[in-house]
Fold this protein.
Amino acid sequence: MVFTGYAAFVWSTLFGLIHIYWAAGGTLGFEGRTMSEVLFIINLVAIALCIIAAFTALALVQEWGRRFSSWLLLTTAWGASVVLGLHGVAG
């Protein structure tokens, strides 16, 4: 299970970095199109969720994560997973 937590951290971090790249004006993956205002806002939300997901993934496998209640960590983990999963499917 520890590997899964670290894998989720890495994935969330990489996913967040590509959204930061796009929000900063990067066009890789947009095939020359420009980002609309709606997509920019979606990117900002995705960046915030990726930060929360990365933090939560580490909290689930690190000793310092025990300072938080388990229901809070699990609710955050499931919530971030569902929202980011829906974002990935929609994208």
